[in-house]
């Protein structure tokens, strides 16, 4: 926190990104031999599945931090507009689900009522997540402002902020 005040926002964020990068690379690299043994043995036990899940999560965090650092260094490259962060977030969620499922490898001792409650609660949780994602995506689409672009007779593209956009004929304009 003090680095934010002394070094500035950008340098402090870069330093924090590097710390997470080093920590996640250490965790990912140190666990890799154990993960290879677990995979070689077929990942049969719940502990092996939990280990593989934990390793997958930290490896994905490592990949995400590398992407963040590279995209922050290459400011105008367009990397920040790619759906890579979303894909990594979904992959982390899948790896987390694999870890949650690792505990379910032994026979269940739950009764019928507990299983019914578990199924109903999972259904409600899934419905809530679906509703939130749907509402968020509809909000993002509903409030997207319409941008007007025009092409002059010389072939110059004028955007919404161009002072010359009102001088171009209407039949040469389009929206995005």
Keywords summarizing the entry:
three-stranded antiparallel beta sheet; 5% strand; mainly alpha; 2 domains; 66% helix; 176 residues
Q: What's the domain count?
A: 2
Note the run of SSEs as H and E: HHHHHEEE
Rounded mean pLDDT score: 78
Question: Rg, please?
Answer: 25 Å
Helix content: 55-70%
Describe the largest sheet.
3 strands, antiparallel
Q: Poorly predicted ranges (pLDDT <50, ≥5 residues)?
A: none
- Main-sheet strand order equals 2-1-3
Can you lay out the helices and strands and say which pair or pack?
Blueprint: H1 2-7, H2 9-40, H3 46-73, H4 84-102, H5 112-142, E1 148-151, E2 157-158, E3 173-175
Antiparallel strand pairs: 1-2, 1-3
Helix pairs in contact: 2-3, 3-4
Describe the fold and architecture.
This protein starts with a helix and ends with a strand. It has helices at about 1-5, 10-40, 45-75, 85-100, 110-140; strands spanning about 150, 155-160, 175. The longest helix is centred in the first third of the chain and has 32 residues, at about 10-40. The chain is built from five helices and three strands, in the order αααααβββ. It has two domains: about 1-105, no CATH class; about 145-175, no CATH class. By secondary structure, it is mainly α. The model has no long low-confidence stretch (mean pLDDT about 80). The protein is extended and about 75 Å long. Strands 2-1-3 form a three-stranded antiparallel β-sheet, with no helix packed on it. Strand 1 and strand 2 (about 155-160) form a beta hairpin. Helix 2 (about 10-40) packs antiparallel against helix 3 and helix 3 packs antiparallel against helix 4.
């Amino acid at each position: 926190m003090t680095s934010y005040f002394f070094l500035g926002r950008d340098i402090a964020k870069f330093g924090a990104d590097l710390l997470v990068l080093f920590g996640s690379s250490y965790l990912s690299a140190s666990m890799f031999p154990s993960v290879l043994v677990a995979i070689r043995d077929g990942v049969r036990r719940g502990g092996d599945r939990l280990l593989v899940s934990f390793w997958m999560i930290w490896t994905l965090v490592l990949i995400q931090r590398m992407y963040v650092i590279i995209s922050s260094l290459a400011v105008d490259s367009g990397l920040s507009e790619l759906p890579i962060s979303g894909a990594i977030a979904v992959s982390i969620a899948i790896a987390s689900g694999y870890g949650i499922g690792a505990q379910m490898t032994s026979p269940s001792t739950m009764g019928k009522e507990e299983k019914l409650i578990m199924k109903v609660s999972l259904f409600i949780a899934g419905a809530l997540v679906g509703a939130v994602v749907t509402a968020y995506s509809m909000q993002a689409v509903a409030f997207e402002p319409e941008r007007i672009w025009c092409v002059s007779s010389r072939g110059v593209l004028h955007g919404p902020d161009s002072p010359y956009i009102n001088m171009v004929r209407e039949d040469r304009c389009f929206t995005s």
